[in-house]
Amino acid sequence: MKPLHTRRHLLSLALLLPLSLPALAQSAADKPLRAVASFSILGDLVRQVGGEHVAVDVLVGPGADAHVFQPTPAQARQVAQAQVLFSNGLGFEGWMSRLLKTAGYKGKQVVVSQGIAPLKEAGHGGHSHGHSHGHSHGGVDPHAWQNPRHVITYVDNIAKGLCGADAPRCEAYRRNAAAYTVQLQALDAEIANAWVAIPAVQRKVITSHDAFGYYAKAYNVKFLAAQGMSTDSEASAKGVGQLVRQIKKDNIKALFVESISDPRLIEQIGRETGVKPAGELFSDSLSDANGAAATYLAMMRANTAALTKAIKGQ
Amino acid sequence: MTALSGLFQAVAGPFIEFDFMRRALLGCLLLSISAAPVGVFLMLRRMSLTGDAMAHAILPGAAIGYLAAGLSLTAMTIGGVIAGLGVAMGSGLVARHTVLREDTSLAAFYLLSLALGVLIVSVRGNSVDLLHVLFGTVLALDDAALSLLAGIAVTTLVAGALLFRPLVLECLDPGFLRRVSALSPLAHYGFLGLLVINLVAGFHALGTLMAVGIMVLPAATARFWVRSLTALLMLASALALLASASGLLISYHADWPTSPTIVLCLGVAYIVSMLLAPFGLRAQQRSSSHLQA
Amino acid sequence: MSESFASTLSSTPFAGGGIALHSVTVTYQRHPALHHLSGCFEPGSMTAVVGPNGAGKTTLLRALAGDLLLQSGRIDGLAGQRMAWLPQHSEIDRSFPISVREMVMHGLWHQLGAWGWRRAAHRAACDQALAAVGLTGMEQRPIDTLSGGQMQRALFARLILEDAAVILLDEPFAAVDEPTSADLLRLIAQWQREGKTVIAVLHDLRLVREHFPQTLLLARKAVAWGPTAQVLTEANWLRAKHMREPFDEHAPLCEHTEPNARTASQTAPAHSVKRALA
User: Fold this and answer.
1) pTM of the model
2) Which of A33, A148, A255, C151 is the most interior residue, by most CB within 10 Å?
3) Could A237 and B128 be called an inter-chain contact, meaning their C-beta atoms sit closer than 8 Å?
4) CA A256: distance to chain centroid?
5) Is C28 near chain B, with CB under 8 Å?
6) Are C20 and C40 in contact (CB under 8 A)?
7) For B124-159, how does the pLDDT look when each residue is reduced to its tens digit (9 = 90+)?
8) CA-based nearest distance B271→chain A, Å
9) Predicted interface score ipTM higher than 0.90
10) Which residues are CB-neighbours of B259 under 8 A, at least 6 positions away?
């Protein structure tokens, strides 16, 4: 009798042991990786790849303006304590180098736009930036995330970065990245599909922010703007006049107001051409958790829906 | 004939074709009537730098308006006016009743106000540039902005007419005014009030640069040409309107940003007047002949 | 002389028309600039106020004008009286773009106020005043073209228009030439003939002797107050110089009280309180 019980106990113990090993291993490496992302969109992407293994702090939160961002001491501390830092690059974060120096950050830095062929900065001819806040994009358009195919590269770079900082969990990161990439490819197809119904000649949009160059190229949509890329450059009377003429001539129906920049100029153009502002597009940042663009995928879907709806005249 | 019609097309064309150009011109007209005369008195009271100081002083008011009602321009404008009036009145009180003069007391108040504003904005953690959002652009004057400007213009003209004599005496001989009339504080604080509403209205509709520029530069320019107060007031308004119309047109044809171009026109008028006008630098030169008596 | 004067005053009921000071004390940071000054300016009198530097002469004028709060004592006879005051250093902004006539017209504030319509009669009165001071022909000139003497004349013209019952002048001839001061003295004599009370702070004793029937020799208190010949004596001047010391940092509290004088809590007639706070 007794030997049978003992053998059963031993067997269950033997079976339990391998199951407990991962648990043991996890408790050792249980603490999530500390990561900092420069702005909200990037923060979402890092979370998608990192999953529960990564604690992400975002510097420029939802609704905030990365062009005029001023870091607080608390954020400098977050950076100092981070193990890996993700930034967009392409001149988007003019304040980053100073922040890194202040925080004395010596950890890993990942520029997620590496490997992407950037577009030149758009802008109508002869137009100059107004009083700048010490940031220039260096003639390059940084908003590469507006093309989901570029975001696949972003995600790949993020996974590589996380693996570099946290090798034990690299498997998980690669898996997450792969899964998310599938979603991104589906998103790309979805958007292309949404535009199929609209003939190319009608794909014209007015917005107050020159941030959709990559989207424009990817899906063959023309974005016309009255102002340059940064939110503080001044409008020129000639530029606005040309825009009004063009809207009237080409019968453009889609007019969008940015969540960040001055809506009044857009409204004036809309008044003069008879086109009503058609809601908002998300360019540089996600909305808050309750908004229509709480994640990157949601943001792209919301933008596309808004654009197509406006052009179709609904 | 074609040259003339070409000129007409260049000057009047943009205003005929575009609604936003007409609105911009109307806004400039209203602001010229209203802010330029205030600027004349500002200059006579040696307070010309007040405008820039006041731009910073209104920040906590705008910040509180933003906290209360989000990115509502009405709330932020009202908050800005309250903060501006608070700073103007506070510094005025200090200047009248202590050893400090107007410039120092204003500097102290506006610095305090600015620091408070920056603190409020930072504590809330949102880096949206409040000042930029608050300050509009002359190319985007909607009905609300035009009504605001019209209201301010009417208020300024009426209040200015009523306060004219006390205000003149307040500038000329404040001790005398204090003795003959109880209106002295009304003249003093009333003027500060007019200053603030003109600045805040100007910021709201036209942006920082233009609002202060159109107040200070025409007054300085007019001073080179005329010597009587009434002439100063009228010439300043006329110069303001002329320069802003020119600035609008030049900005249109040269594709330059509008607000700075208007202020540059005002500045060019100032420099040209300083060089050529009878009471500018020419007053220093020796004339070739003199009268018998 | 002053003590007996004060004691007679305190027992006699005050007769209307003049300005009576009862133990007036005005302090700057608790040091007395005027120290228990008592006396009377008769109605229609022309009094020169003289004394060494720092004697409190300007302070006296300012107290009479209601510009300063009295620390103790009171001044009777000012209520309801319009007073005109010419300060020693005019606060006038000479660079202000205004014509002589416009500036002088302010003297008619008591008739026109802030919004009164200016009629031809007012303009005529203004031109008359300018003629009286010898500035005819200068009406349209901006004030920054006036010399010192001309500015003083213009301010006198403004005084004429103020038509005040009491006129306070602080060193009116300090920076003007002989002909100007002669003209202005004629004007002052004219005022006295019209029954105005004139009180003038002066440094030129020759002028005082020639033109002012009454004199107050002041050294924080009244050293001598009365007909000029009796006041301006060597002995009185010596006494004045002795009585006027610089403020003493270690001076004890003053315990002096006049008979019938009110306590400090009842100081400052209503009009001077209101004016000082404006």
Assistant:
1) 0.69
2) A148
3) no
4) 19
5) no
6) yes
7) 755 455 555 455 678 778 888 888 889 999 999 999
8) 24
9) no
10) A234, B137, B138, B206, B207, B209, B210
